[in-house]
TrEMBL record:
CDD domains: THUMP_AdoMetMT (cd11715). This is rRNA (Guanine-N(2)-)-methyltransferase. InterPro entries: RlmKL-like_Mtase, RlmKL-like_Mtase_CS, RlmL_1st, SAM-dependent_MTases_sf, THUMP_dom. One of its GO terms (molecular function) is rRNA (guanine-N2-)-methyltransferase activity. Keywords: Methyltransferase, RNA-binding, Transferase. Residues 44-155 form the THUMP domain. It holds the Pfam family RlmL_1st. SUPFAM superfamilies: S-adenosyl-L-methionine-dependent methyltransferases.
Length: 374
């Protein structure tokens, strides 16, 4: 049977996510603002949750109902037979996004949806689901748009960017989904050497290693929300999970990360151990001025500090100049990518860009700068 799904993604990453979903078997794939609509069967739902590197969560679209005001929303939600999706013994949480003139407070809208569901249960069974905002059995997403409410089941639970391998983080970690998307934006392929000389807790090198070894990022998660659904097919999931485990490759290129902070390098190594490939991924405690190219060509990618205030920006001027000097003197034959949210700082790199890609990093307007190093 074919169902309608919606994958939520970071702003600006819709096209990359849609290509990923197409490769996984998605049908009728269409991008939307911070999301991708697609169709497929239950196998695809499980597979996208397990394999996607760039999306946050997968919603199973149930129904869209008129919702001109709170009363109409309550009435129409209550008309849906919720017994197919949740029983009174299961806990419930409702998350709301979007708004309309008469439904402009997400908490109140979520409350209307929740009340309609539990009131239906109370009338039908004489009992109702308890609300659990921390670890619910069933998560319902209500999206308000143009006086209509689209109701969906959240199949992912925790955001898919929380891979499960990342217990140790630096001060300003890059989301794993964004790191993977940025790697897709570069010229890097799993055959090329890759280095991040400012790696922090190791997100770029680890995501690159997952790609190079063809490891599904969802293998490290303890659970997905769909495993609590009434129609959960454990045999199908076991088959898909086992296939993913058996698809891992053995060989990989040089992938390295280094950082001047010894503590974050310890965190990066801990994260690599959690993935099971600490012996294949190299992390070095090393200052930027001491970094050298490990091969005669490859991809360098980094996410240096941006500086939020003017005084912080000025203090970073010498660091960015040093970064440009290291690239120019030691990485000839390489292609470098720098993610930055501060134009004044990138001017100090002192190299001409060959491409500038706008990127939204957690609400911060950034640019992925490409440098061809001759």
């Amino acid at each position: 049977m074919t169902y309608q799904y919606f994958a939520t993604v970071g702003r600006g990453l819709e096209d990359i996510a849609s290509q990923e979903i197409i490769k996984l078997g998605g049908q009728d794939v269409q991008t939307d603002f911070t999301g991708v609509h697609f169709k497929g069967d239950r196998t695809l739902l499980y597979r996208v949750n397990l394999w996607s590197r760039t999306i946050f969560r997968v919603l199973w679209t149930l129904q869209t109902v008129p919702s001109y005001d709170p009363e109409q929303l309550y009435k129409n939600v209550k008309k849906i037979d919720w017994s197919s999706y949740i029983n009174p013994s299961q806990t419930l949480a409702v998350h709301c996004t979007g708004k309309s003139p008469r439904l402009n407070h997400s908490h109140f809208t979520a409350l209307q949806v929740k009340n309609a569901i539990v009131d239906q249960q109370q009338e039908k069974y004489g009992t109702r689901s308890d609300i659990d905002t921390q670890n619910p059995d069933i998560i319902i997403n209500a999206h308000i748009r143009e006086n209509k409410c689209t109701l969906s089941l959240d199949s992912s639970g925790d955001s898919l960017h929380r891979r499960g391998y990342h217990p140790a983080m630096g001060m300003a970690p890059l989301k794993e989904t964004l790191a993977a998307a940025l790697l897709y934006m570069t010229d890097w392929t799993p055959e090329l050497p890759l280095i991040d000389p400012l790696c922090g807790s190791g997100t770029f090198p680890i995501e690159a290693t997952l790609m190079a070894l063809n490891i599904a990022p969802g293998l490290y998660r303890q659970e997905f929300a769909f495993q609590r659904w009434n129609d959960y097919d454990s045999d199908l999931w076991d088959q898909i999970f086992t296939e993913a485990e058996e698809s891992e490759k053995e060989t990989m290129p040089i992938i390295m990360g280094s950082d001047a902070d010894e503590e974050v390098i310890k965190q990066a190594r801990s994260n690599a151990r959690a993935c099971g490939f600490a012996d294949k991924l190299q992390f070095h405690h090393q200052k930027l001025i001491d970094v050298e190219a490990p091969a005669d060509h490859g991809i360098l990618i980094c996410n240096p500090p941006y500086g939020k205030r003017l005084s912080e920006t000025e203090q970073l001027f010498p660091f960015y100049k040093l970064l440009g000097d290291v690239l120019k003197q030691r990485f000839k034959g390489w292609t470098a990518y720098i993610l930055c949210g501060n134009k004044e700082l990138t001017k100090k790199v002192g190299l001409r860009t060959s491409q500038r890609i706008p990127v939204d990093n957690g609400g911060i307007p950034c640019t992925l700068l490409k440098y061809e190093l001759y």
